[in-house]
Each structure stands twice: as C-alpha cells, then as structure tokens.
Design brief:
The chain has 19 helices and no strands. It has helices spanning 8-18, 23-30, 34-43, 48-58, 62-71, 78-84, 90-96, 107-115, 121-133, 139-145, 151-163, 167-170, 175-182, 187-202, 220-231, 238-243, 251-266, 272-287, 293-308.
C-alpha cells in the first residue's frame, strides 16, 4: 500500500514506526497516555498544538506535516505557511528572531498568525513578543487578543496593556469585556485581568466600584486584589463596596477589611448608619465558610468593640 493511500490514523502509525518508537513511547514523550494517542488517530480530534508537537517528535518533513494538518481538518493560510514554516524548524527560527524584519512576510501576515487560534501557541506568543518589542500597535489586534481562547495569549496581552500605560492601549478594554475576563474561571486570566482593572482604577479610567465584579470569583487571590485596592481609598462609599465582599473567608482579605473598619471607627469617621453596616459586615465575616479560627476570633473581638460603642 502506498503512503498516499493511508488515512490520518494510518499515517500517524507509519510515521511513529518510521521514527523507531512504539505508540506507547511516543504518547509518553508527548505527555499523554497510549489510549489518548489512539483516540487522536481514530477520531482525528487532536488539537493543532499537539499535532505540531507530534510532527516535531516523529520528524516529518514539511510536505508530510501539511498533509497531516489537512487530514486533521485544519485549514491554514497557505501563503503564511509557505513563507514562514519552511524556514526550517519554526521553534528554532523563532528562537533566533530579534526583529520581525528578519521574516520574509508582511506585517499583516504576522498579525494574521498572531491572531489565528489554530496556530501553535508558542509561535503566536513568540511573534507577539517580537511584535511588541518592535513597537507595533494595532488596537483591533489588541482588543481581539485580550479575549483570545488561549489563556497564555490572553494573559500576555493583558499584562502588556496594564504594564505599558498608554491611552491607545487602555481603550482596548470596555467595562463588559474586562468584567468577563475577571470572572473567567481560568485563574491566570482572572488574576491578570483584576490587576489590569486595579491599574485602570488607579489611573482613573474606571470607577472604584468596578472592582466589586470580583466579589464572587472562586479564587481568593482575585478577590484579595480587589479588596486591598478598595480598602486603600478614603471615600464615603468604600465601606459599602467592601460590604460586597462579606462572604470572603481568606484571612488576608478579612484582615484588610478589619483594618479599614478599625482605622475609620477609631478616627470617629463612621456615621451611625456606617457603624451598623460595619457590624453587619463583621458578622458575615464571622459566619463565612471555611474561615480560620484565628480570623474568626479577631472578627469577634472587633465586633465586641463596635457593639460596645453602639
């Protein structure tokens, strides 16, 4: 049987056997089980990134790689593939790049690769890194990348935006997009997004109240960043904003709330209504799920002080 008569799974078997490895050994080197690799062969549900890793591992040539990509159902820009990947092993070429001017493709084609979710993540990140170092700015591209399906690409773009204060960068966010990112179940995306929001609040581009979107996030760090930023502000609405986080149980977050209440209570800055809200807030912190015994004890002592003066 000719190689051209083989289907996707049979080609995978052929290239693995040609490489001198067993199916089990190949799967292990990829970080997966033999059964997973078998499913990839029969169902053709292998991700593009894993397909690229497999191609690298079994050392297929460019023509063979393109055939596997086609059989797996990935339709890629032929012009970009023709001019970028044949430069040799992409990972080696990208590792040596110092500027996009070294590539024989246009800036528009580079942006297309960066934005394409079917391209290998390492390739997109490497090109994005050099793109940013070269000083290129494309607000449409940036806005797309902060909501990219790849958590790695999304985080990279978020970090760039909030670490490089620039009105052109900051307007890629609107409140709805950033709120969705903060509530992303992917921890790294959410924590990076809340840091971006903290930066934008500090710069006055977002209201302080915006940080309360993190109040129900399952990860303590996301809530802690919001609480600590809110607690540093001396405005009449801060206590009301902190009240939004009354179910938090993480000890550092609770400590930030207690410190704010103690400072403003002892300074006599609380109205009767605010004092009642502070008491109710502390009661909630005492009853919070999974609160530590130490935090509960500190909350009870503060509650006693607040109630004595009521």
């Amino acid at each position: 049987m000719k190689k051209t008569d083989l289907d996707f799974g049979e080609l995978i078997d052929f290239y693995i056997e040609r490489s001198g490895r067993s199916l089990a050994a190949t799967a292990k080197m990829l970080g997966y089980s033999r059964s997973t690799l078998t499913k990839w062969k029969t169902r053709k549900n292998i991700s593009f990134n894993n397909l690229q890793k497999l191609c690298d591992l079994v050392e297929v040539n460019e023509e063979e790689r393109q055939e596997l990509i086609h059989l797996a159902g990935y339709e890629l820009d032929p012009l970009v593939r023709k001019r970028l990947i044949p430069l040799a092993n992409v990972s080696r070429v990208i590792g040596d790049l110092k500027s996009l001017s070294q590539l024989e493709i246009s800036l528009e084609e580079v942006e297309a690769v960066i934005q394409s979710s079917v391209e290998p993540t390492y390739l997109r990140l490497a090109l994005l890194h050099i793109y940013l170092l070269d000083g290129y700015h494309n607000q449409e591209l940036f806005a797309s990348l902060v909501t990219d399906p790849s958590p790695e690409v999304c985080r990279r773009m978020l970090r760039y935006v909030y670490k490089n204060p620039n009105p052109d960068n900051e307007i890629v966010f609107d409140g709805t997009v950033l709120a969705e990112l903060i509530n992303n179940p992917e921890y790294e995306v959410a924590s990076t997004a809340i840091q971006a929001a903290r930066h934008l609040v500090t710069k006055g581009h977002l209201p302080l109240k915006f940080l309360t979107v993190a109040k129900t996030h399952p990860y303590w760090l996301v809530r802690r960043i919001a609480i600590q930023r809110i607690a540093k502000v001396d405005t009449p609405d801060v206590l009301e904003l902190l009240y939004e986080f009354r179910t938090t149980s993480y000890h550092i977050s609770q400590q930030a709330i207690r410190d704010f209440i103690k400072k403003h209570f002892l300074d006599g800055n609380f109205s009767t209504q605010q004092k009642e809200m502070a008491i109710d807030l502390i009661k909630h912190l005492i009853k919070a799920k999974k609160v530590s015994d130490i935090s509960r004890s500190k909350n009870e002592k503060l509650l006693e002080i607040l109630q004595q003066d009521s």
